[in-house]
User: What shape does this take?
Amino acid sequence: MGDGASLKSEFVAFKTNRIVEAASRLFYERGYSSCTLDHVAAELGVTKPFLYSYFKNKESILAAICELGIREALTALEQVMAADHASHRDLLAQVVAKVGRIVIHRQEYVVVYQREMKHLSSADSDRILRMRASFDHQIGNLIRDGVNAGEFEADVDPFVSVWIGGLISWIPTWYSRKGQRSAEEVIEHLVQASLRLAGAN
Amino acid sequence: MGDGASLKSEFVAFKTNRIVEAASRLFYERGYSSCTLDHVAAELGVTKPFLYSYFKNKESILAAICELGIREALTALEQVMAADHASHRDLLAQVVAKVGRIVIHRQEYVVVYQREMKHLSSADSDRILRMRASFDHQIGNLIRDGVNAGEFEADVDPFVSVWIGGLISWIPTWYSRKGQRSAEEVIEHLVQASLRLAGAN
Assistant: This one.
């Protein structure tokens, strides 16, 4: 770190993030189809050629937005798995809370993904669906292990991971920062609901 | 029934349904913003003035699409509530199964609603959100009654109705008719998951 090369890559990451952030806001507010790269460039006060030096086209910006939430969720899952934990119950509670916080923090990105995924190229769409499937699969394994360890009820099907993924993914649709419930209350409810679904109460 | 007036209103309902059906397919496949009333008219082999005799504008067709699933869900809820039932557990299982089947049957409409709701007028959006809130509220009451009757676990918060609504609403995102699981398997899983969430296992 600190040498020219890493500084340059930090600049690139910074600029890429700023583009993704501005585009996400625009796509969220106006819809992907109604937005052009001219709008994105104007929002950032840059030229269109500047955007093209970071992204091939509008679709590749959309792909970066759509990928962000699930990529962060997978990283969080790996971090929790790698750390010490008292039980599978504890593990599930920690993963769900972390990923729930990501989804609330990245609410706009997740909503853009859910609304606009049909505009992704099939390569991008497949890649993101594989990441989602990997997340569900790992949660499924965690639940299977918890059942085998006698911590979760014996009749719980690991497929319940898809429902837990649904609970998490559904938050951005109804949660509002201006609503009655704080983010942490929502996370607490989410953890309780997920533990119930896993038969880990 | 059978007189001229009711036959006429049947014709109107039939034509309205056909318009909503064709528009839903187009909005689902191409996105609302990319579709014009010309596309809808061409799809049906009718003129644009024909469409205007049934709908004020493109947005009012979208509103009809978005309203359809939740209207059918509320009707199903009322029917189940009005019929005999052995227990609150039974009541919840029946409602969730019925509404789950509606959501699978109306998959395209629900997906269009979730993707395109931001294009609704605020009057239509508010009306549909009130219908959704009424559904969640009635499920919340059912759960409260079940807790008071000692059928559901005492520490279950009626707010869990929002999570159950989430499970149901999430199905169209991941369920595929060509997938590994039949619709009835999905419904069975949905009922089990909802009963777990309500502490009614």
User: Anything to note?
Assistant: Chain B has two domains: 1-55, 64-197. The CA atoms of residues 100 and 168 of chain B lie 6 Å apart. The radius of gyration of chain B is 19 Å. Residues 64-197 of chain B form a domain with the Tetracycline Repressor; domain 2 fold (CATH 1.10.357.10).
